């Protein structure tokens, strides 16, 4: 490669790096202004709905309160461990309420919804 070509390559590389940095900053600005969807009415959903189960974790993350998020996550995980232990002691297998699960050598693993459509959730996006 000739010296002149090297300079052109370096110039293009610098331009690319600056453009990427500018794009990153624009994305960061846009994303920081987005509002997370919130459940309008927790009474309108099942207590096992992931939005309800993980709501305190989400609040901690969105509020940048990492201690609260970590504690809420531990609470969710401890509750799930407790439920699994209770099922095991009773000899019960976990069966999903909304999906069928199958696994075979021929077709592999499959998870299909029981209902064709998921009912709408009472979720709003704050403006």
Which short descriptors sum up this protein?
single chain; alpha+beta; Alpha-Beta Plaits; 2 domains; two-stranded antiparallel sheet; two-stranded antiparallel ribbon; 4 strands; OSBP_sf; OXYSTEROL-BINDING PROTEIN-RELATED
Give a structural overview:
With 127 residues, the chain is α+β, with helices and mostly antiparallel strands. It is built from four helices and four strands, in the order αβαααβββ. The strands form two sheets. Strands 1-4 form a two-stranded antiparallel sheet. Strands 2-3 form a two-stranded antiparallel sheet. Strand 2 and strand 3 (108-113) form a beta hairpin. The protein is extended, with a radius of gyration of 24 Å. The termini are far apart. The mean pLDDT is 81. It comes from Salix purpurea. This is OXYSTEROL-BINDING PROTEIN-RELATED.
Give a short summary of the structure.
This protein is 53% helix and 13% strand. With 127 residues, the protein is an alpha+beta fold.
Give the SSE map:
Elements: H1 3-32, E1 38-39, H2 50-53, H3 55-62, H4 66-90, E2 99-104, E3 108-113, E4 123-124
Antiparallel strand pairs: 1-4, 2-3
Helix pairs in contact: 3-4
Estimate nothing, just give the exact number of structural domains: 2
Order of helices and strands: HEHHHEEE
Rg, Å, rounded = 24 Å
Q: Give the spatial strand order of the biggest sheet.
A: 1-4
Number of strands: 4
**End-to-end distance:** 55 Å
CATH domain fold name of the largest domain: Alpha-Beta Plaits
* The CATH top-level class label of the largest domain: Alpha Beta
Task: Please name the CATH architecture of the largest domain.
Answer: 2-Layer Sandwich
> What is the tally of helical segments?
4
Based on secondary structure, the structural category is alpha+beta
The helical percent reads 40-55%
Strand percentage: 5-15%
Which stretches are low in confidence, meaning pLDDT under 50 for 5 or more residues running? none
Biggest pleated sheet: 2 strands, antiparallel
| 3D shape | extended
Average pLDDT confidence is 81
């Amino acid at each position: 490669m000739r010296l002149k070509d090297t300079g052109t390559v370096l110039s293009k590389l610098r331009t690319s790096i600056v453009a990427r940095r500018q794009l990153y900053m624009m994305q960061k600005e846009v994303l920081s202004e987005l509002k997370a969807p919130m459940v309008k009415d927790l009474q309108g959903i099942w207590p096992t709905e992931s939005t309800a189960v993980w709501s305190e974790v989400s609040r901690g993350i969105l509020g940048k309160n990492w201690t609260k998020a970590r504690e809420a996550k531990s609470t969710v995980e401890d509750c799930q461990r407790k439920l699994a232990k209770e099922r095991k002691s009773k000899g019960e297998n976990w069966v999903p309420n909304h999906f069928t699960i199958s696994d075979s050598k021929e077709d592999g693993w499959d998870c299909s919804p029981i209902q064709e459509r998921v009912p709408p959730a009472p979720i709003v996006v704050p403006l």
